[in-house]
Design a protein that fits this description.
Keywords: Acyltransferase, Transferase. By secondary structure, the protein is α+β, with helices and mostly antiparallel strands. It is 27% helix and 29% strand. Bound molecules: coenzyme A. Coenzyme A binds next to β4, α3, β5 and α4.
């Protein structure tokens, strides 16, 4: 059965906006590992937002940055030469049929929230993933996290489902909501996807 309006893909958010200011955002390198850890550490140690129990080593973080840069993207937000946030994409599932779907993540220094930095980072990240040929972005958000829920919705992400009591951290279970965004527009429904570059 041909897809009709009722089963057409989710509409694209407003992150396509031409001329969106992404100043202060640059591509990461392995040398940014320590700065990323400094931003990431409080989320690992004090919250269930990160699903990790141990803060990664500099070597591990450098390897993650290099791997993400190779296949997806890893970006840094800087202010006055200092990293204050990062965002990345990586593989959602290691299956050939899922290769056009990326998982995204973002962490902004807790002292620099709500200054528009996250929007700059994600705008550029989603642009870059689209340029590389990815068709869908997915974000897994430990609940409750109204800032991240609203942040993702502001880009057009919509609810994809809820993993109930999937994460054990800080002495209790946590639900994880998944949100998703179509990157390439509603016209990709019946076209075979191209190669990821
Ligand atoms: C989610 C996060 C990345 C947002 O970054 P940020 O730099 O504070 O976001 P911005 O200032 O660019 O805000 C962009 C939009 O997101 C939404 N938003 C951000 N924080 C919000 C909050 N606390 N409450 C409601 N909406 C919020 C708003 O729509 C906002 O637009 P507006 O300011 O024009 O209303 C940041 O809160 C963060 O690092 N949180 C901890 C880590 C985390 O949860 N990461 C996501 C894991 S999936």
């Amino acid at each position: 059965m041909r897809c009709t309006r009722i089963c057409s893909p989710i509409s694209v958010g407003d992150w396509h906006t031409a001329g969106m200011d992404v100043s202060g955002v640059r591509q990461a390198s392995a040398q940014d590992a320590a700065a990323c850890i400094a931003i990431y550490r409080p989320y690992v140690e004090n919250t269930a937002i990160s699903w990790e129990l141990e803060v990664p080593s500099v070597e591990e973080m450098a390897a993650r940055i290099t791997a993400a840069r190779t296949t997806h993207e890893w970006l840094i937000l800087e202010d006055d030469g200092q990293a204050i946030g990062f965002a990345y994409g990586h593989t959602l599932y290691r299956l050939p049929t899922y290769q056009w779907s990326a998982e995204t993540g973002i962490y902004v220094d807790p002292d620099r929230h709500r200054e528009g930095g996250g929007r700059k980072l994600y705008t550029r990240l989603l642009q870059r993933l689209t340029e590389r040929g990815y068709r869908r972005a997915f974000a897994g958000i430990t609940q409750p996290n109204e800032a991240s829920n609203e942040f993702h919705r502001s880009f057009g992400f919509v609810n994809a489902g809820l993993y109930r009591r999937v994460e054990w951290k800080l002495d209790r279970w946590h639900d994880v909501a998944w949100l998703q965004l179509d990157l390439s527009g509603a016209d990709d429904a019946e076209k075979a996807p191209g190669l990821i570059s």
